[in-house]
Amino acid sequence: MSDRPGISSPERASALALELRTSLGKLKRKLRSQAGHEDLTSSQVSVLLRLEKDGPASVSNLARAEAMRPQSMSAVIAPLEAAGLVSGTLDPNDGRQTLFSLTKMCRKQIQERRAAKQDWLTNTIQTRLSAQEQKKLTAALEILARLVED
Predict the structure, then answer these.
(1) How far apart are alpha carbons 87 and 104 in whole angstroms?
(2) Which of 86, 88, 101, 109 could be bridged to 80 by S-S, CB 3.0 to 4.6 A?
(3) What is the dihedral of CA 30, 36, 39, 43, to 10 degrees?
(4) Residue 13 falls within a domain, yes or no?
(5) Are 52 and 107 in contact (CB under 8 A)?
(6) How does pLDDT run across 67-85, given as a tens digit for each residue?
């Protein structure tokens, strides 16, 4: 984006925000395609990542964490279970509930997909960006990190 004279600061910030969201969205889609996530919905990916981070959880706990109704979460979990990505066991504290966790196969796929994304991005940075551009990217990442600080 060029720094055009006559554009007010709020207009420039709005244009930057739009360009940033667009570019990050494209990068996210490209990384997903490299990792083979096309067959999973964003809700399914979110549940898998939550189970990886937080450990086993019931449908109701997952629904609460994802701001969904339990019935909707059941519809997200069912295909994950059918695909062998999650498995359920009875909750030892409440036998009426099932706790879902990632299967070993799923954990392996997550590691492989992360490696594929990392490899693609590393190779793309090395082959498409000059040393000067890589330095600029480093500076931009520092600025992006400041944007998301709490």
Answers:
(1) 10
(2) 86
(3) -70
(4) no
(5) yes
(6) 999 999 999 999 999 999 9
Query: What residue type is assigned to position 60 of the chain?
Result: S
Q: Report the residue count for the chain.
A: 150
The DSSP secondary-structure symbol of 40 reads S
Kindly state whether residue 8 falls inside one of the protein's structural domains: no
Tokens of 58: 């019931």
Closest CA to 107 of 86, 89, 88: 86
91: containing domain: 35-147
* Domain membership flag for residue 95: yes
Structure tokens at 145: 């990190």
Tokens of 11: 């207009």
Backbone angles phi, psi at 83, to 5 degrees: -85, 0
Residue 100 pLDDT greater than 90, yes or no: yes
Question: Is-contact 36 113, C-beta < 8 A?
Answer: yes
CA 110 to CA 116: how far, in whole Å?
Answer: 10
Q: Looking at residue 42, which CATH number applies to its domain?
A: 1.10.10.10
Is 29 a member of any domain?
A: no
What is the pLDDT, as a whole number, of residue 42?
Answer: 86
